Amino acid sequence: MAFNVVDGWTVPGFTHERELGGGASGRVALAVDDTTGTRVAIRYLDRRLVDDQSFMARFSERARTLTRVEDPNVVDVYDFVTGDGGAALVMQHVEGVSLRRVLAVQGPVGPLAALSTLGGTLLGLAAAHEREVVHGTVRPSDVLVDERGNAVVGDFALAPPGTEAQTVPPYAAPELWEGAPATVATDVYAVTAVFFECLTGRPPFAGRNMARLHREAPIPVEEVPGPLRDLLGRGLAKDPADRPASVADFIVALEEAAISAYGPSWEAQGRGRLTELAAEAARRPEPKKASRGTGRNAIVTSAARPARGSRARWIGAGAATLAVIAGAAAGVAALTGGEKREPVAAPPTPAQQSTSPQPVLPAGGVDPAPLVARIEQATARAPGAKFDFARDGEGAVRAVGTFAVVPGARPSYAMTVRGTGDTRNAGKTIVVGDRFHGEVSRKWRALPARNAYAALTEQVRQGTSVATVTSLLRTATELRKDGEVYKGAAPAAALAQAPGVGPLYASLTRTTGAASIEFAIRIDGQARPAALWMRAGEPKAKHAVLQTTYADWGRKSVKAPG
Question: Closest by alpha carbon to 486, among 452, 530, 455?
Fold first, then answer.
C-alpha cells in the first residue's frame, strides 16, 4: 500500500503496511523487508529535524553507532537511510506494548515489576553509554515491554541539543533546564523519574513551573516503599555529582536493594508480573489522555508509542551486575517470562518384574524419543518459520529472517545478519543449498564460502534449524520438563557428531572450551519449537549464549535471487 511519508519518499526495499504512531520526532511505519520477509519498524524523521543540518550531522553519527549496539534491552537499529530530502531509521519490530500504555491502562505496576523495568532500562542505557551514546529524553513511551516482560529502550538522541527539557518536562534533570548538555547523569535522573511513575502512577514533579520544581522541590521519597527510597533519593539528586557515577553503579545499588527487600527471585517475579500487565494493556483500549490528581502531581501524558519486543536476559555489568538467574534456570526464565512453574515429575520407576532391558532415560526422567518424533512430525507439516536469533558472549551475532525446510536438502534461509568487526553493519543474505548470496550496493551477488557474511549466515542456519533442537534432545544426559519448557544438558562431543549441525557445536567447544551444552527449549501447543536457549561455558569465563525465537510456522518459500 502507498505510504506517503516525506514528500512521497519511503525507504526502498520495503513494503509499508500501516502507520504505527508518531510524535515530535516523526512518524513510525510497520514495513516488511521485500527480501527476507522480516517485519521492521521504520521511523521517518520529522521535516524540521531533517532540515536542521547541525542535528542531522550529529544524529547521523549517533545512528551509525547505534547499529553497533547489541543488547537485548536496546531496540536493534539496522540502518540509517537518507534520500530525496528524507531520513529514516530502520529498526527491529517485535510485538509488545510501550510502558506508557501499560501505565495509562494499569496505573502503578507494583515494586517488583517497577524494579524489573528499572533494571532492564538501566541495562539498555549502559550498553549505549559504552558506545558514548546518551539517550537524552528517557520517558515511558521510549521503554517498550515485550511479550516476556523484558524492558527495551529505543529512540536514542532524537532531541536536538538544548531541547531535551522542553521535550520531556516531567523527566528532565535540573541541569537540563539551565542549558547543560544531556549526559549519563541526566539519563540516570530521567530513568529514576520513570521508576517513580511505575511505583505511584505519576511522575515525581508536574505543574506549571517544571524547571523550579525539578530544581527546588523536595524529592517525594515518602511516596514509595521504604526499601526503595534510597534509590529514589540518589537517582533524583538535584546535583548530578550526587547521583550514581554510572549506570553500572546504579545497577549494583538496585540489585542490593531488591534482594534485601524482596529476596533473590525478585527479578523473575517482577518480570512475570510485568508480562501479565503488558498482556492486559494490549487487550484493553488505552484511556483518553487526561490530567489526573492535583497540585504538583498532575500528570502530563505523552503520545502512545508503538510497541516493540525483544529477547532474553543480559548477564554481567562489570564485576557486579543484575545477574539473578544462572545456568539453565536463566534460559527457562527467559523462555517462560518468570511465570509460576509446575512441579517436575519424579523419574518413572522401571517395572520390577520385567526381564526386558529398560531404556536408560536422562537424569530428570524425560524420554526424549517421543518428544523428538512429535517435533519432527509437527515441523514437517509446517516446514518453515520466521526467526529471531542472537548469539552473545564470544562471537556475537544478530539475525532475523525466514527459513524454509527443503525435503532431502538443507533448509533455505533469507535473513538480515550482522556480527562484529568487519560485519558489524547489517547485511542481507540468502542461502539456498550450498550457495550463498549477499546484497552489495543494492545488487545481489554470489558470496564465496569464506566471505564473512556467508560464514555468519551458515552459523545462524545451524543455530536456528530444527535439527539443532532435536540434536540437543537426542543427546541429552539431563532432561526435565517444566510446563512447556524442556531444560537439560548434553555433551558437546556427542553434539559435534550431529548430522548437519555438528560444526556449530564443534565451534562452540573450540571457542569456549565447554564440555557440555546447557539448554532450554519451549514447545508450542502444536509441538513446534517456540524458543531455544543454550549456553556453552561459564558466564565468568569464555562463554557463548545462543537464543532463538520462532514465529509464524507454516509453508515458506525462499528462492535464490534471479
Answer: 530
Residues 472 and 517 sit within 8 Å (Cβ to Cβ): yes
- Angle formed by the axes of helices 452-464 and 466-475, to 10°? 50
Distance CA 544, CA 502 (A): 16
**Would you kindly state where each structural domain of the chain is located, as residue ranges?**
14-92, 98-324, 368-551
Residue 145, pLDDT above cutoff 50? yes
Confidence of residue 94 (pLDDT cuts 50, 70, 90): low
The pair phi, psi for residue 185, each rounded to 5°, is -65, -35
Looking at residue 437, what is its pLDDT? 93
Q: What does the alpha-carbon distance between residue 431 and residue 561 come to, in Å, rounded to a whole number?
A: 10
- 3-state secondary structure labels for all residues of 46-114: CHHHHCCHHHHHHHHHHHHHHCCCCCCCECCEEEEEEECCEEEEEEECCCEEEHHHHHHHHCCCCHHHH
The DSSP 8-state label assigned to residue 227 in this structure reads: G
What are the pLDDT digits (tens) for 21-40?
777 788 999 999 888 888 89
Question: Which pLDDT tens digit goes with each residue over 74-85?
Answer: 998 988 998 888
* 498 pLDDT more than 60: yes
**Predicted confidence band at 462 (pLDDT cuts at 50, 70, 90)?**
very high
Residue 532 in contact with residue 375, Cβ under 8 Å? no
Query: What CATH class does 98-324 carry?
Result: mainly alpha
Percentages helix, strand, coil for the chain (3-state, rounded to 5) are: 35, 25, 40
Which alpha helices (DSSP H) does 217-290 contain, by range? 229-235, 247-262, 266-283
At 35 the pLDDT is 81
CATH 1.10.443.10 given to domain 368-551: no
Q: Which three cell numbers stand for residue 518?
A: 546447557
Instruction: Determine whether 348 is exposed, middle or buried from the number of CB atoms within 10 Å of its CB (0-12, 13-18, 19+).
Output: exposed
The architecture (CATH level 2) of 14-92 comes to 2-Layer Sandwich (3.30)
**Which three three-digit cell numbers place residue 416?**
538480515
Average pLDDT rounded to a whole number, residues 149-176: 93
pLDDT, one tens digit per residue, over 230-284 is 999 999 999 999 999 999 899 999 999 999 899 888 888 898 899 999 999 988 8
Contact at 8 Å (CB) between 519 and 463? Answer: no
Residue 201 cell numbers, joined: 502512577
Question: What sections of 131-183 are H helices per DSSP?
Answer: 164-167, 174-177
Sheet harboring 14-23: ordered strands across?
14-23, 26-33, 39-45, 86-92, 77-83
